[in-house]
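Anyone opening a protein record will find just a pair of labelled lines. A complete record is shown below as an example:
=====
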Amino acid sequence: FNIGFCRAGYKLNRYLFDKMGGNFLTAGYCYISRSENRCVYSRAGHEPLMHISYKTGEAVLHEYEPRGRIIGIGPDIDLEHVEFDINPGDRIILYTDGLIEIFNHGKEISGRERLKTLLMESKDLVTDEAIEFVYDALREWNSYRQFDDDFTLIIIDIE
């Protein structure tokens, strides 16, 4: 299985760690093997991957958060990967922290649980509609009506 991100992540971190000027970077790597019905995920400080599985007949949301420190903090990082089965009808969700760090008028943060709820509420929508549903709900939650951070949401439906 392709776990090249771990090796590439080590090399990238070693190259960047003393050149970042106090900044850092997160990264995630998702490899989907349709021929083997498997998915591999590795991360360097990035948000967990979410997976809606129908293996049991019911929609179940799984969260995968393999160990992985952000890039640029030190000369070495400890990365791991997770592998899991995928089946037709499953959904893979990748996102940035801008979706879970949104504040409302009451200074409450949107959080990962709110995102999970929105993903499950939109699980029967096609990908474009599901993304729009999540975007609209979080925009409504946002007290500033403009996002302060990046807003990246990638939804992949397995056919």
